[in-house]
Amino acid sequence: MKNTDIPTHKYGLSRAYISARRIKMDARYPEIAHRHNFFQVLFVEEGSGCHEIDFEKYKAKAGSFHFVGKGRVHRVDFTGDTKGDVFTFPEVLFSASETEMALLDSLSYFRSGSVPILQPNANELKTLLPILEQIRASLKSESLDVSKFLFFAFLGKLRDVYGKKSSPISGFSEEYFAFRKVLKLVALELNSVEELAGKLKIQVARLNQLCKKESGKTALQLLHEQKVLGAKRMLVYTSKQIKEISIDCGFNDVAYFNRFFKKHTGNSPSQFRAEHKQMS
Fold it and tell me: 204: Cβ–Cβ under 8 A, 6 or more apart, which residues?
């Protein structure tokens, strides 16, 4: 039975270290879609299956890395023979210096809109796996400081390999990413570009210029996309009534919310919920 809210896995505020475990699947206990207040990197050493992240399904292939940023809703459905690693870590891990925060900000694979999967080639894996093995050993020996800086180097190396794959998201400006970060936080409560520009303390014309240049879309289109994603998450992963979801998405008129959602998805909220339930 669904919860009234999307389950959130939380990292304690006092925990500023890396947590690691091996991938372990059990068909008796299928994973429920959830979100995190932390970051996660999964390495699929061998095996197969599917990883669903915000309604996009990605195949799990041997030698692939999967990146789950804070707030993204995901669910893994790997085969029982899948082997690999799961690393989780909080944002506070990077809080010791501006250099560390700059590293976190540079990790484009965690950004909203990025493709969250990396499939390195054989030569790239040869450079990544020795660092991964060192991280495993240092975490096992509880050498936390060594583990931290090895892990930072590993994240940076993953970023460099990811950048070579020519993902268009990596070419966006830092100003645009700052906008996307704010958009994720406030989209559901806002209904106009003017309100959004006010939150960002910039002119509407400048905001639209930035969005059009970086994404080819207007600020209003991006606002609506984020609202639709929020509505989809609640329709599929919670048991909230459509009227509740309408209000949570900033619509006091449920009929208007229904029209808005159908315009952007081709389905009414109730149809979308029913169809996704049949598919799951």
Answer: 193, 194, 197, 219
3-state secondary structure of 243: helix
Distance between terminal CA atoms of the chain? 13
The reported pLDDT for the residue numbered 1 is: 40
Both structure tokens of 9: 């896995």
Is 56 in the same domain as 139? yes
* Upper half-sphere CA count for residue 175 (Cβ side, 13 Å): 12
Q: Could you list the residue range(s) of the whole structural domain that residue 19 is in?
A: 8-170
Q: In the beta sheet, which residues pair with residue 21? A: 86
Burial 1-29 (b: 16+ CB within 10 A, else e): eeeeebeeeebeeeebbbebeebebeeee
Three-state DSSP state, 126 = helix
What's the CA gap between 194 and 178, in Å, rounded? 17
Q: CB under 8 Å to 84, separation ≥6 — which residues? A: 22, 23, 42, 43, 44, 45, 46, 47
Residue type for position 2: K
Q: How far apart are CA 65 and CA 115, in angstroms?
A: 11
| 183 & 102 share domain | no
Tell me how many domains the chain contains. 2
- Give percent above pLDDT 70 in the chain: 93
- Helical H runs in the chain? 98-105, 122-140, 144-164, 174-186, 193-200, 204-215, 219-237, 242-248, 254-265, 269-279
Query: What is the residue-wise DSSP string for 195-222?
Result: HHHHHHTS-HHHHHHHHHHHHSS-HHHH
**How confident is the model over 130-187, as pLDDT tens digits?**
999 999 999 988 888 899 999 999 999 999 999 887 555 545 677 887 888 888 888 8
Q: Given a cut of 60, is residue 12 above it in pLDDT?
A: yes
